[in-house]
Amino acid sequence: xxxxxxxxxxxxxxxxxxxxxxxxxxxxxxxxxxxxxxxxxxxxxxxxxxxxxxxxxxxxxxxxxxxxxxxxxxxxxxxxxxxxxxxxxxxxxxxxxxxxxxxxxxxxxxxxxxxxxxxxxxxxxxxxxxxxxxxxxxxxxxxxxxxxxxxxxxxxxxxxxxxxxxxxxxxxx
Length: 173
Fold this sequence. Notes:
CATH class: Alpha Beta
Radius of gyration: 16 Å
Number of helices: 6
Helix content: 25-40%
Oligomer: single chain
Number of domains: 1
CATH superfamily: NAD(P)-binding Rossmann-like Domain
Strand order of the largest sheet: 1-2-3-4-5
């Protein structure tokens, strides 16, 4: 295995070049513009996206696999209003949570590579560490999804910072 560090911001202009040589994309982004960017790039490139996210005492993990299950936009059609989504730095995160979700993402990636086991495609595993509750939700693709639906309307990458700020402004109005 070889690690290739990228010392640049992931953008609509560079993501396709960066992901082209990888079979599986593992997403641990901490902001909504990058989550939508990674999702859309993975759908366009037909690459599985092993997604994980955390917030305070909760974490989620799933696998978005184009053609086999829903994408991030099926689950989250629009970003939340900015005042409803403080950053991890602002809200805080339980220190062990990134490791816990990261281990699940690593396991899902290994299962995809080996073609073994039951992956999280079409399922979202949710951890609530305060109550030590683990729930698995079934996810379905949205036929009206603009990215992976029956009649997609998004065919190229956009400005995701603008997309998220416009949606947040619309929610505030």
